[in-house]
Amino acid sequence: MSYSISKSIIGLLFTAATASLALSGCSNKSLKSLVPDKPSDAPDYMCTWNLQGYYVSYDMAQSGGDLTRNAMNEENLFGNGKYQNWAALYPKIHQDLFFVMDDSWDIPKDANSIHNNQHLGTVILDSERFPSFTGSPTERLKQLCQRFKEIGWKGVGGWICAQKAGRFENIEEKEYWIERLKMANEAGFSYWKVDWGHNDRNDQWRRMITDLGKEHAPDLWIEHAMKNEYITFSDVFRTYDVEDIIAQPVTIQRICNLLPFIADNGAKAIINCEDEPYIAVALGCAIGIMRHPFNGYLPNGKQDFVFPPVGRDYKNRLDEVVRSVRWHRIAQPFAVNADCLIDTLKLHDFWEVHEHETYVDRPIGSVVQESAPARVSRRMPLPEVADTTANRPYVLASCYPNGAVAVAAIGRTLGREYVSHRVPVTVSALKPSDPIGIFGSFKSVTIKYAVPFPANFRVIAQDLAGDKSVDITNKVTIQDNALTINGNIIDLVGLMSATPGDKSEAGMVMVIK
């Protein structure tokens, strides 16, 4: 069987005009956007790590220093040179996102050594890297936050090494972190992405930082990683880095490893599944954007091996990021609470590695294999999938605390292809007025409601990337308390605002009024 996806991708890339023509039998006059104007409160962010890496062609070391660290500076954030002005990326969703500066916004510009770096963990905006911001450390950080908010971003965050900087060895540990948390609070700094370091797997230290944050910087989101049990007390827990060639099953399985935990009383306990936005919205997770629009070869002329132009081809799928972030205006990510159902059936993905396709040291021709549950749900029954052929997609669904339901079909990595096999899916919902989010490629989606439809109802739908909704009442099928929408209509509506050339699959919201 051929797993070629080229024809299906072409079929998905409808223009807005084509979609409008196909839906011409529907009324679209004076319909209000289904996406609220109010920005999301979700802890979604764009992280600069892969921007830094791309800028220096992922040349990790030079003369004992790390060029990726060297790329974190004011000029790259705001400059107008080639591959610069990172602060201008994703303009449609600035107000929904934190801009997270990765390693090393807080160390001297020439202190980029990989090992025995006494500056890691400084957590003070470096005046050499950011010379336009002056005054005390708090004043500099506050000016930076104001600069980003003037551009339109929700806020600013930073990568935090899980250790006190060696050059401050005379300051007591707790006092050190209280001082930095107070600085963040006063400056309006929004997010700490706490990663590796001497204390990265120190349970007491991780919990201490969270407790001190609640006391001294209550509006600061503190993200943890490394050990799954940290989800219980975290504001956010990150599922961590994955290879893009096999990212979907790895990410789904890591989320499944976290869902059975129960959050501590008062903990936000939100999962961040990084750069897998359709998985995120289908399972109530936050998003950490890593992909970026600097497309093609690296500046040194070699293939981008972090975002290779194979498989899902991430950098040509930016619309799905916009759709997912805007879904969070409708339904917010929510805490783990052992509220999940996980299929015992696992699907098995594999990728044959060619040159420059991963940052992991793998022999050319080797095969990467990963598995994940075929279906996962939160706060609702597992989706029903009528087609159980070998290349069926992963099907994920959640009922959010506000009643909204999201369902996603996540394609498969098989051999040398990303496969989006269309299947009929049935999910449950509470009442017809609750929003339904549909993400991915389907043969059809049926929603079974717990209560009857209202009299004289209309079915309104919209591409989450756009601001125009359409009436699709006569394009759906109603039987008893169930509504079925054909996959072709999902594609037409869910791609109405698609960027020309973008390969993202459909992402739409639907409401019965």
What does this structure look like?
- With 513 residues, the chain is of the alpha/beta class.
- It is 21% helix and 21% strand.
- It is built from twelve helices and 25 strands.
- An eight-stranded parallel sheet has the order 7-6-5-4-3-2-1-8. An eight-stranded mixed sheet has the order 9-12-14-15-19-25-21-22, sandwiched between helices.
- Strand 16 and strand 17 (417-419) form a beta hairpin.
- Helix 6 packs across helix 7 and helix 7 (173-187) packs across helix 8 (203-216).
- The longest helix has 15 residues, at 137-151.
- It is globular and about 70 Å long.
- Mean pLDDT is 93; it is low at 1-21.
Give the strand line-up of the largest sheet: 7-6-5-4-3-2-1-8
What is the radius of gyration? 23 Å
Largest sheet: 8 strands, parallel
Quantity of strands, as a count: 25
Structural class: alpha/beta
Helix content: 10-25%
Mean pLDDT over the full residue set: 93
List low-pLDDT spans: 1-21
Query: DSSP strand (E) fraction?
Result: 15-25%
Mass-distribution shape: globular
* Total of DSSP H or I helical runs spanning 4+ residues: 12
User: End-to-end distance, in Å?
Assistant: 44 Å
What secondary-structure arrangement, pairings included, does this model have?
Elements: H1 6-12, H2 16-22, E1 45-47, H3 49-55, H4 67-70, H5 74-78, E2 98-101, H6 137-151, E3 155-160, H7 173-187, E4 191-194, H8 203-216, E5 221-224, E6 236-238, H9 247-258, E7 270-272, H10 277-282, E8 288-289, H11 319-327, E9 340-342, E10 346-352, E11 367-373, E12 375-378, E13 384-385, E14 394-399, E15 405-410, E16 412-415, E17 417-419, E18 424-429, E19 436-439, E20 444-449, E21 459-463, E22 469-471, E23 476-479, E24 482-486, H12 487-494, E25 507-512
Parallel strand pairs: 1-2, 1-8, 2-3, 3-4, 4-5, 5-6, 6-7, 10-16, 12-14, 15-19, 18-20
Antiparallel strand pairs: 9-12, 10-11, 13-18, 14-15, 16-17, 19-25, 20-24, 21-22, 21-25, 23-24
Helix pairs in contact: 6-7, 7-8
